[in-house]
C-alpha cells in the first residue's frame, strides 16, 4: 500500500533513499529530503506491507506530467514486484498524466511500461 510521506518516517525514508546511487552523500541526501518536505512540486510516497519497505518520489514539471525522481526498495524485498506496484499505484494517484523518468529511473520505468 502506498502512503504519503510524513516527517515521522524521515529516518526510514532516508535509509531507503540512500540505496539510490546519487544519494550516497549525506549532504545530498539531506537536501533531497528537504526538497520533498518543503517543495510543493516534490511528492514522496512510501510502500508499506507490514513494514515500510520501499519509496517512490515524483516531481511535477507542469500540469500534464510528472517525473519519477527516486524509486527504491529495501534489498531484502527486491525481485518481488514491489517497484512495479509502486509505479502502478502512482499512476492511479495521478491518472491521465504522463510519466517521465531521469537517468537513474529510466531503465526501470521503461521495464514497467513494457510489461
Short structural description:
This is Protein RibT. By secondary structure, the protein is an alpha+beta fold. It has four helices and five strands, in the order E-H-H-E-E-E-H-E-H.
What does this molecule look like?
The chain is an alpha+beta fold. The protein has 4 helices and 5 strands; from the N terminus they run βααβββαβα. The chain has a single domain, classed as 3-Layer(aba) Sandwich (Aminopeptidase), CATH 3.40.630.30. Helix content is 36%, strand content 28%. The mean pLDDT is 93.
Mean pLDDT: 93
Class from secondary-structure proportions = alpha+beta
Assembly state of the chains shown: single chain
The main sheet comes to: 5 strands, mixed
Number of helices: 4
What is the CATH architecture descriptor?
A: 3-Layer(aba) Sandwich
- Indicate the percent of residues in helices: 25-40%
Number of strands: 5
What's the domain count?
Answer: 1
Distance between the termini: 21 Å
Beta-strand residue percentage: 25-35%
CATH superfamily: Gcn5-related N-acetyltransferase (GNAT)
List segments where confidence is low: pLDDT < 50 over at least 5 consecutive residues: none
SSE pattern, N- to C-terminal: EHHEEEHEH
Compute the gyration radius: what is it? 13 Å
Write down the CATH class. Alpha Beta
Give the overall shape, derived from the CA principal axes: globular
Keywords: Acyltransferase, Transferase
EC number: 2.3.1.-
Protein name: Protein RibT
Organism: Pseudoneobacillus rhizosphaerae
Amino acid at each position: 500500500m502506498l502512503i504519503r510521506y510524513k516527517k515521522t518516517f524521515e529516518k526510514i525514508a532516508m535509509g531507503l533513499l540512500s540505496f539510490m546511487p546519487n544519494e550516497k552523500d549525506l549532504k545530498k541526501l539531506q537536501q533531497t529530503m528537504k526538497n520533498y518536505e518543503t517543495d510543493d512540486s516534490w511528492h514522496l510516497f512510501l510502500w508499506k506491507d507490514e513494514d515500510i519497505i520501499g519509496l517512490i518520489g515524483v516531481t511535477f514539471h507542469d500540469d500534464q506530467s510528472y517525473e519519477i525522481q527516486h524509486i527504491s526498495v529495501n534489498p531484502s524485498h527486491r525481485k518481488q514486484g514491489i517497484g512495479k506496484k509502486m509505479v502502478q499505484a502512482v499512476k492511479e494517484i495521478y491518472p491521465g498524466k504522463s510519466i517521465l523518468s531521469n537517468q537513474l529511473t529510466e531503465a526501470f520505468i521503461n521495464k514497467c511500461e513494457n510489461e
